[in-house]
Amino acid sequence: MKSFNGGFMENIRVLLVEDNPDDEYLATWVLKKGGIGLVSVARDGREALDMLYGEGDGTDLNPDLVILDLRLPKIDGKEVLGRIRGDSRTRNLPVLVLTSSEDSGDRDSCRKLGIIDYCSKPLREEDIRKALNSIGRG
Amino acid sequence: MNSDLPIDFSGRNLELLLALVEHIPSAALVVDDERVYCNRNAERLTGYSGSEVTTFTDWLQKIFGSAHAEMRALYEQDRAAGFPETRELMITRRDGSCRMVEFTAAGREQVFCLMHDITERKQTECRLLQSEIKYRNLFDSATDAIFILDLDGRFIDVNRTAHVRLGYTKDELLSMHISQLDPPEYAARIPERLQKVREQGEAVFESAHLRKDGSVMPVEVNCRLHEYEGGQVYFSVIRDISERKQAELLLLESEERYRRFSSLTTDYIYACSRCGEKPYTVQWMGGAIEQITGYSMDEVMAWGCWMEIVHPDDLQQVRSRLLALAPGESSSDEFRIIRKDGEIRWILEVSRCEQGKSPGELLLYGASRDVTKRKNTETALREVETIFNLFLEYSPVYVFFKDENIRATRLSRNFEKMLGMPIDQIVGKSMEELFPADFARKVVADDRKVLRDGVPIEIEEEFMGNSYKTFKFPIYLEGRPPLLAGFTVDITDLKKAQREVLNLNNDLERLVAERTEALERSNEDLAGFCYAVSHELRAPIARLQGFSVMLREASKGSDETAFLASRIENASSQLQSVVDSILMLSRLSQVDLSLREVNLSEIVARKLELLVAENPERHVELIIRKDVTVVADPNLMDICLDNLLGNAFKYTGQTSAAVIEFGVLDESGEEVYFVRDNGAGFDMSYYEKLYAPFQRLHQHKEFPGIGIGLATVKRIIERHDGEVWAESRVGEGATFFFTLGRRG
Questions:
Q1: Which of A62, B1, B199, B428 is in the most buried spot, having the most CB atoms within 10 Å?
Q2: Closest Cα to residue B671, out of B728, B720, B616?
Q3: Which of B537, B544, B545 to probe by mutation at the A interface, max A CB count within 10 Å?
């Protein structure tokens, strides 16, 4: 299996926000297959925000890419995206929405908030490749 | 008698004389001084016998009464003169009657007297004299001029009227000839006319005489031949007929004038006369007799009586009315006549009876007018009135009429039941007298409003627990105050039914609303369910796909595992298409159309080129009509054409010289778009199944698909208010037509 960019991928940190273990497994598998080693997983929106901004203990994650499912327990994906865009620290943080929904309304509202792609599950290697290209890390 | 003759009547002579005297056939008397002797005739004349008369004085007293002394004196005077003349004396007889006597005497000592009774002669003379005077008076005072002419035509005598009227003196006329008195045209006819008088003894003719002043006097001459003083004369009575001529002329003019008037009048008029108990006969008729009766004046005059045309049923009435009229009375009557053409007409006749000129003659004047129209109108009016009353009697609707003071004038019979009193007690009453105060006030206000505004109104009223609908309107009759009329219908039952219907409607509406809500909820539920199901299915399908990819990667050279992994991948992809299609169909029903101008030709070209590019092994001829633009939702049209073109491309997959055409037809003003291919086509007997979701007409092996494409097309076209239909034969391709109702 070839890494996406010949060896610079292991430094790329990805926050995968996904509540379904199967989907988490599949996505992680594709990311790892693409050579991305640092994958943190948040299992609901609350957890994702905590991980992004820490709890004041300096443990806050500073990911290069957030892969965000929309249907999440506690705080759903769209709100999480909103909070990310609303916070100066993460205003420019690349977010890729990964969902099994084909709702064009969701797609449009996410695009307005600023995302690099809106992908249908299952995550495919070319989705990752395109995303990394668009953030200049491919 | 000569008194000079000496006669001695003394002695013997006297006796002789007396005997002689006795036999004289006249009344004779011998007077000797105071002695007197009367013969028998004298006794008969005076009525006194000789023995009754003692002396001459006594005789004189008896005969002359109070005039005896005067008579004695006259006698003595005549005796002294020798009785020179006879005297006519009036004596009074013993019976008191008077006689005229001629007295002749002679002698001196003895006087011999003769008395002749001349009473008869005197009377005749007297009569003659009187007659002459009378004749002259008549002659002169006659109102007609009278000429007496000799047989040559010369005037012998004329009366006063003649010369006065002609302006001549009597002497002038008596010196003239009759021909000088006539104008030439009449003068020429004189000999002929006199000839006629001579032959017939008399003749009457019209002529004219010239007055002295030259003016003409029309005359009627009545001329006879008369015996006169031993000869024959013409005795002519000349009547001045100037006035008559004038009157005749006036009469003619008057007749003419009347004839003209009567030709103008639309009435006819008549004059009849009758004597005694005889029926009237027509003397004269005029006016519009022919127009009214159809008979000419001559026909009616020929009958002598216009009763002929009177209707048999009215004849007795007319006849008895006319015969009952006394002079000076008038009457009028209406009756029917039968015209010559059989038509019946009504006549109004005014008649007046007058006394005629001859005794027992009655004149009847009448004027008759054709009043058929009026009568017919009256009859029609009566009929209308009768019908109208019947309507009022039996009307199920309350009908009323009120005067300008809002008092009931006429009402339908059913008001008796409503108000509980007979109609004749309701008529004339005010509303306040008929209804409770509040109700009456409202009724009067409405009525006054109708009369004031002149506009009909329709109102609903409640009275004694019943509902009524009333329609009121004004009636304007010329020269009369406006009337109010109206109808009232008892709508109590109707109201009740309406309320029931209303309640039912409300119930129904509520039910429909409930059901609709339920249906909508159910629809929403269904849409939501579809949406949710699709979403819920997508996640596991995505996982299936993910894991099958993983499985294929993990097969590590095991072809069988890799094959099975790819079958799972295929199946899950197919499942994904189904779910996506369901999602799209459910979305198609919900999205709002966003209409704008769409160039269908460009979409078609792009899609076909893409298909061709994706399937380089296929050779398809494309025929695309350029610049077909419509107003539609671009996204939906994209999906629609995607399906139609996809089908065309798919079903020409096994056709050697495949042709796909897109074009537009103009069918009676509506543009019909079509996508045509020469592919496999389908059996039209399955046409109905074509648009049902998940219905397929081909085996999957031949042409794979899930059967949702045409259902999608149909839904999109219908969202645009258009229609879609297809024509095909197996093996000969298919053409799909569609219209876009919302275009433009």
A1: B1
A2: B720
A3: B545
Of B539, B550, B583, the CB nearest to A121: B539
pTM: 0.39
Chain B residues whose CB is inside 8 A of the A121 CB are: 538-539, 542-543, 546
Min Cα distance A1 → chain B (Å) is 10
Cβ neighbours of B546 in A, within 8 Å: 22-23, 26, 30, 121-123
Sign of CA dihedral B17, B18, B23, B26: positive
Per 3-state DSSP, chain B is made up of helix, strand and coil in percentages (nearest 5) of 45, 25, 25
Query: Which candidate in A121, A123, A126, A127 is best for mutational testing of the B interface (most B CBs within 10 A)?
Result: A121
Query: Is residue A120 a part of any domain in this protein?
Result: yes
Distance CA B402, CA B440 (A): 14
Structural domain containing residue A71: 10-134
CA B253, CA B248: separation in Å to the nearest integer? Answer: 9
**Å from A121 to nearest chain B CA?**
5
Which chain B residue has its CA at the smallest distance from A121's CA?
B542
| Domain CATH number, residue B80 | 3.30.450.20
**Owning domain of residue B117:** 11-124
Q: Which ipTM was obtained for this model? A: 0.82
Residue carrying the six token digits 């008077």: B98
Q: How far apart are CA B391 and CA B400, in angstroms?
A: 12
Q: Does A27 fall in a domain?
A: yes
pLDDT tens, residue by residue, B351-387 = 999 888 888 888 888 888 888 888 888 888 888 888 8
B467 and B509: one domain?
Answer: no
For A101, the closest of B538, B545, B550 (CB atoms) is B538
The dihedral through the CA atoms of B234, B235, B239, B240 has a sign that is: positive
In this predicted model, what pLDDT tens digit does every residue of B31-54 receive, in sequence order? 888 888 888 888 888 888 888 888
Q: Is B147 exposed, middle or buried (0-12, 13-18, 19+ CB in 10 A)?
A: buried
The total of structural domains in chain B comes to 6
Substitution target in B541, B550, B572 with the highest count of A β-carbons within 10 Å is B550
Question: Inter-chain contact A100–B542, Cβ cutoff 8 Å?
Answer: yes
The model's pLDDT over B64-102, given as tens digits with 9 standing for 90+, comes to 888 888 888 988 898 888 888 888 888 888 888 888 888
- Angle, vertex CA A98, rays to CA A97 and CA A104, nearest 5: 70
To the nearest whole percent, how much of chain B has pLDDT over 70? Answer: 96
| Predicted confidence (pLDDT) per residue in A35-68, tens digit | 887 899 999 999 999 888 876 555 567 899 999 9
pLDDT above 80 for B397: yes
Q: Which residue has the higher pLDDT, A82 or B708?
A: A82
Rounded to the nearest 10 degrees, the angle between the axes of helix A21-33 and helix A125-134 is 70
Q: A98 vs chain B: nearest CA distance in angstroms?
A: 11
